[in-house]
Design brief:
alpha+beta; 4 helices; about 35% helix; elongated
């Protein structure tokens, strides 16, 4: 007997009729190392924003606080920016050093 998977469920949830939604669920389960089953989907559904989580897996970013530079000098204005990268080391290399000076990592 084959187990029922998220991709074979019919009429359980209208979102499951969308191929992009099912793809997002499969990606998140794969990333988390959880078996892709209806039971697991129902268990985790109210705790996970599937498409947002999948987007973040595919496009990881780190958030940093930076000082805005004005003509190469610190302006006193600190802002938060998102930098592409899976690690902080990778992300910090993406700062435009002509416009911003790194202050700290934001949580």
């Amino acid at each position: 007997m084959n187990p029922v998977t998220v991709s074979t469920v019919q009429d359980a949830d209208l979102r499951l009729k969308s191929e992009s939604f099912r793809r997002a669920v499969r990606l998140v389960f794969s990333y988390l190392g959880i078996e892709n089953t209806v039971r697991n989907f129902q268990k985790w559904d109210n705790q996970i924003a599937w498409e947002e989580f999948a987007h973040n897996i595919q496009n990881p970013t780190k958030t940093a606080r930076v000082n805005v530079l004005w003509h190469g000098e610190k302006s006193g204005t600190t802002i938060t920016i998102k930098l592409p990268g899976r690690t902080r080391t990778e992300a910090i290399k993406k700062i435009d050093t002509k416009r911003y000076k790194f202050v700290e990592w934001a949580w």
